[in-house]
Amino acid sequence: MQETRQNRIARLLQKELAEIFQSQTRAMHGVLVSVTRVRISPDLSICTAYLSIFPSAKSEELLNNIKANEKSIRYELGRRVHNQLRIIPELRFFIDDSLDYIDHIDELLNKK
Length: 112
Description:
By secondary structure, the chain is α+β, with helices and mostly antiparallel strands. The chain has 4 helices and 3 strands; from the N terminus they run αββααβα.
């Protein structure tokens, strides 16, 4: 029962975070930030979001910028989901480098 609630809230947070990043990166032409996966702790207090950033050369710079603005992102998230959640979870952001890893493996396989 608890896992169903966690999954439902994780999907909600993923959708809302994606919309927040989409609206904020609209001014930065050529930059795309997508939320690939969201995990939420069992007590719903910590939200871990994995971000895929294109182009990947700017990923560290953008991640540092996102981490510096965590409070404003959490505030915006709170404005969007205040009717569904009592407590807005603490946000943690990480780079999802699975696509880069796949590209690297493909390069290694094509070399031989």
